[in-house]
């Protein structure tokens, strides 16, 4: 039997692909998983957690149950348990890219940037075009001061998906940190031109003009920032 998603050979007795976590048989979706998926989709995380914990206890190697349980733990704010569940799922299915991404997000919110970076890099090893992983990796790298690498992944993000306009703002911040004020101003202006009425972009742009001695343009932008604040933007 071969996985229809990733093509890996699997034993006839396997329920899930060890590489990507996909179901190998579609005669029916495990009813126990459905009992958890429905309440989770409706925001009833406690009920979903109860069903998934029972399922994982009965079937510890259930890849999707471990992954979904991690997501429930994450939504409840129990990040250490979420990380443990995601890692268990990835032990069973190392190329489960969504799980690796979710693990990175959990590590990020746990404040463990090195582990978050490793998880997002693993996503990109599996799928180099996983744009959300480029974006998250860039943010994590920024937090540890790796500005050049962060810039590289923000640029890849905007190249893959130009609609990721917030990446332009982050690129502007990086250029500003590097002292490349003209490039920073270009990126902040682009983020505004593309419809992001963000007070932070306006404020950064005003500060750049002030540093460059253009007080008139700086004052105009600061007034625009005040208008955004009054409008609740």
Can you tell me about this structure?
By secondary structure, the chain is mainly alpha-helical. The protein has a domain at 1-95: Serine Threonine Protein Phosphatase 5, Tetratricopeptide repeat (Alpha Horseshoe). It has helices at 31-41, 45-58, 63-75, 79-92, 97-110, 113-126, 131-143, 147-160, 166-178, 181-193, 199-211, 215-231. Helix 3 (63-75) packs antiparallel against helix 4, helix 7 (131-143) packs antiparallel against helix 8 and helix 11 runs antiparallel to helix 12 (215-231).
Topology:
Layout: H1 31-41, H2 45-58, H3 63-75, H4 79-92, H5 97-110, H6 113-126, H7 131-143, H8 147-160, H9 166-178, H10 181-193, H11 199-211, H12 215-231
Proportion of helical residues:
55-70%
- CATH H level, superfamily name of the domain at 1-95: Tetratricopeptide repeat domain
> How much beta, percentage-wise?
under 5%
Q: Report the sheet with the most strands, covering strand number, pairing sense and barrel closure.
A: none
Radius of gyration: 22 Å
Strand-and-helix sequence, N→C?
Answer: HHHHHHHHHHHH
Q: Return the CATH architecture of the domain at 1-95.
A: Alpha Horseshoe
Task: Say what the CATH topology of the domain at 1-95 is.
Answer: Serine Threonine Protein Phosphatase 5, Tetratricopeptide repeat
Q: What's the mean pLDDT score?
A: 86
The outline comes out as: elongated
- Helix/strand-derived category reads mainly alpha
List unreliable stretches of 5+ residues. Answer: none
The number of distinct β-strands equals 0
Distance from N terminus to C terminus (CA atoms, Å) equals 54 Å
- Reading off the top of the CATH hierarchy, the class of the domain at 1-95 is best stated as Mainly Alpha
Total of DSSP H or I helical runs spanning 4+ residues? 12
């Amino acid at each position: 039997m071969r996985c229809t998603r990733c093509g890996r050979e699997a034993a006839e007795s396997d329920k899930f692909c060890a590489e990507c976590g996909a179901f190998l048989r579609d005669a029916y979706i495990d009813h126990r998983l459905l009992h958890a998926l429905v309440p989770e989709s409706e925001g009833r995380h406690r009920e979903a957690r109860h069903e998934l914990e029972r399922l994982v206890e009965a079937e510890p190697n259930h890849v999707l149950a471990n992954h979904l349980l991690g997501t429930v733990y994450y939504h409840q704010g129990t990040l250490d348990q979420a990380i443990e569940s995601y890692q268990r799922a990835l032990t069973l299915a190392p190329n489960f890219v969504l799980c690796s991404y979710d693990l990175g997000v959990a590590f990020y919110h746990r404040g463990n940037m090195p582990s978050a970076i490793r998880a997002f890099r693993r996503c990109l090893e599996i799928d180099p075009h996983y744009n959300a992983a480029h974006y998250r990796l860039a943010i994590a790298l920024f937090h540890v001061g790796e500005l050049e690498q962060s810039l590289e992944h923000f640029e890849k993000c905007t190249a893959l998906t130009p609609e990721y306009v917030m990446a332009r703002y982050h690129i502007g911040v990086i250029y500003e940190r590097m002292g490349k004020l003209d490039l920073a101003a270009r990126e902040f202006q682009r983020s505004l031109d593309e419809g992001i009425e963000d007070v932070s972009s306006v404020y950064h742009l005003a500060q750049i003009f002030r540093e460059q001695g253009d007080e008139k343009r700086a004052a105009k932008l600061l007034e625009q920032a005040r208008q955004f604040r009054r409008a609740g933007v």
